[in-house]
Design goal:
mainly beta; 9% helix; single chain; Thrombin, subunit H; 103 residues
């Protein structure tokens, strides 16, 4: 019954933990907001931060690969919500400008 309530799977790609995707679990959103990577896929990421990230914003997320490589990825923030109240933490879903390969 739970599957019937959930509806069709809307995800375009499977989700991974940051280490499972080959990146570290901390990233930076330009202009310098440090975020924790909750889940990541070739097409986007879910991140957590101490500050809200405005939906509709197009910016850059800098990821660090487990092997030390660093690369910027263009993103669009799709939505942001309060994840916890004490302490206040926000989660933001973002879509990459194009698919990326695992680190």
């Amino acid at each position: 019954m739970a599957a019937a309530l959930m509806g069709a799977e809307r995800r375009a790609a499977p989700r991974f933990t940051a280490p499972g995707f080959g990146v570290v679990d901390v990233a930076v959103i330009r202009p310098g907001l440090t975020v924790s990577v909750v889940t990541i896929s070739p097409r986007g990421a879910l991140v957590e931060s101490v500050a809200p990230i405005r939906p509709g914003v197009r910016t850059e997320l800098t990821l660090d690969a487990a092997d030390g490589r660093r690369w910027p990825v263009g993103i669009e923030v799709l939505r942001c919500w309060v994840a916890t109240l004490d302490p206040v933490r926000y989660r933001a879903a973002m879509r990459f400008d194009g698919p990326i390969a695992a680190g």
